[in-house]
Specification:
Length: about 120
């Protein structure tokens, strides 16, 4: 099951497959995206949907959508990091921050150390 179930119909004679509600299927992806973005997992997402009497995606389908969301996020993160790195490189070159032909940037951290507490 999914938020808007859609079905595939396959014709053995012509070997064509038709899908019902192809545009509504995006809502399943968007639902998993939102669930992941706010930090809830499948269990909490199921509770949310059950409170409004909505069907929930199957575990296999939900996992597939989580993987799809992860791939999109990874591509976007890589793109943003590349753009930021290119900008930092440009600024370093403009500032003359080059050592042995390689532009560099200065990174300042607070020197903090993660603490682990046991209760």
């Amino acid at each position: 099951m999914a938020l808007f179930p859609f079905y595939n119909y396959h014709c053995d004679n012509c070997e064509k497959t038709l899908s019902s509600h192809p545009k509504e299927a995006k809502i399943n992806f968007d639902f998993v995206w939102g669930s992941t973005a706010i930090g809830i997992g499948k269990g909490q997402a199921e509770e949310l949907l059950s409170a409004i009497d909505m069907p929930t995606p199957s575990p296999k389908f939900y996992r597939k959508l989580e993987n799809d969301v992860g791939r999109v996020w990874e591509m976007q993160f890589q793109s943003k990091m590349k753009k930021a790195a290119d900008e930092e490189k440009k600024l370093a070159i403009e500032a003359g921050d080059i050592e042995e032909g390689i532009p560099f940037i200065i990174v300042i951290v607070d020197g903090g150390w993660a603490k682990h507490y046991r209760t």
